[in-house]
Amino acid sequence: MLEVTSTSMELQLGVDFAQIYRESSMCKDKDMLVKRLSIPVPGTSDLHFSTQFPQKFREQFKACLWKQCLSYWRTPSYNLVRMVFITVACIFFGVLFWQKGNINHINDQQGLITILGCMYGTTLFSGINNCQSVMPFVSVERSVVYRERFAGMYSPWAYSFAQVAMEIPYVLVQVVIFMLIAYPMIGYEWTAAKFFWFMYTMLCTLFYFLYLGMMIVSLTPNIQIASILASMFYTLQNLMSGFIVPAPQIPKWWIWLYYISPMSWTLNVFFTTQFGDHDDRMIDVFGETKSVAAFMRDYFGFRRDLLPLAAVALAAFPVLFAALFGYNISKLNFQRR
Q1: In which region does residue 72 sit, left (phi positive, over 0), alpha (psi from -120 to 50) or beta (all else)?
Q2: Mean pLDDT in runs of 10 for the chain (337 residues)?
Q3: Which pLDDT score is estimated for 212?
Q4: Of 238, 300, 255, whose CA–CA distance to 274 is shortest?
Q5: Which one Pfam family would you cite for this protein (predicted)?
């Protein structure tokens, strides 16, 4: 049928099949039938559904969560790789900074800056890996979501919440691996408060890096542009975290970037909870004697009195990025077919 109705066949026969149909009685009969069927029968009402989706939001979320659970379990290239990566990274950093976190081994500013750099490096290294690894996975999932959303199978918010919730157990496993391997090898203090604060900070940090990657993918049409935007974020995190350029040395007109940088709050909690309470531990700092807490407060600008605010900020960043991910998925559509 395609061969005999093609444009080349029309040219060969010298006819226009579309024009022939428009001038035929069949076309006129069909037009009259369409007009007649377009007028509803008296006494009838339009077809109406009380809800947009056949199931309630709770059922949609449960279905999406189960689908994501199976999808994650069947994707070892994503989940198994990041578990192996965090394990190898923990062993590497543990060997490299063996017992450097023991406060009794810190005698001068170089020893303190070394262990602070360890915190900075392990956090940034693990966070960037999570962000980079989740972006291709979410990019592929988004194409499936477009098709299933247009079919009316579920709300985009149900998918977004399921995607966000599905990451929680995997990130928890990553944090547990870090706390069991790297924490004792580096020599951090074994007290309940310090252990809890370190675990809480690491958990929030991995979450906001992960949800940031998901949010960037939802904002961009393809993975290439998403990777470029993510690299810009990494650069800002490096510069405005308060470690490479301490907060007191950041120009006044750029200090707002320091306060909205998630990494600055991460390092504030890390530094002040591990070493910010050692007012009695004196070290040599550029030729003078200072306490560890005073050096961090004067040189880096990290203050222990900001700990409650920093803890709230750390919890707020993952929530913000996850909410923006859900909003972008529901409002933006980059599919062109």
Answers
A1: alpha
A2: 82 87 92 88 75 79 90 87 90 87 76 83 88 90 82 85 92 93 87 90 93 92 89 86 84 87 89 77 74 78 84 93 91 75
A3: 93
A4: 300
A5: ABC2_membrane
What local confidence, expressed as pLDDT, does residue 337 receive?
Answer: 60
Residue 173 in any domain: the answer is yes
Q: How far apart are CA 229 and CA 237, in angstroms?
A: 13
Are 173 and 85 in contact by the 8 Å Cβ rule? The answer is no
- Number of domains composing the chain: 1
Q: Is residue 139 part of a domain?
A: yes
Residue range(s) defining the domain that contains residue 216: 57-331
Joined together, the tokens standing for residue 320 give 């913000």
Tokens of 84: 């192996």
3-state secondary structure the chain: CCCCCCHHHHHHHCCCHHHHHHCCHHHHHHHHHHHHHHCCCCCCCCCCCCCCCCCCHHHHHHHHHHHHHHHHHCCHHHHHHHHHHHHHHHHHHHHHCCCCCCHHHCCEHHHHHHHHHHHHHHHHHHHHHHHHHHHHHHHHHHHHHHHHHHCCCCCHHHHHHHHHHHHHHHHHHHHHHHHHHHHHHHCCCCCHHHHHHHHHHHHHHHHHHHHHHHHHHHHCCCHHHHHHHHHHHHHHHHHHCCCCCCHHHCCHHHHHHHHHCHHHHHHHHHHHHHHCCCCCCEEEECCEEEEHHHHHHHHHCCCHHHHHHHHHHHHHHHHHHHHHHHHHHHHCCCCCC
What is the length of the chain?
337
Residue at 281 is within a domain: yes
Whether residue 92 is contained in a domain is answered as: yes
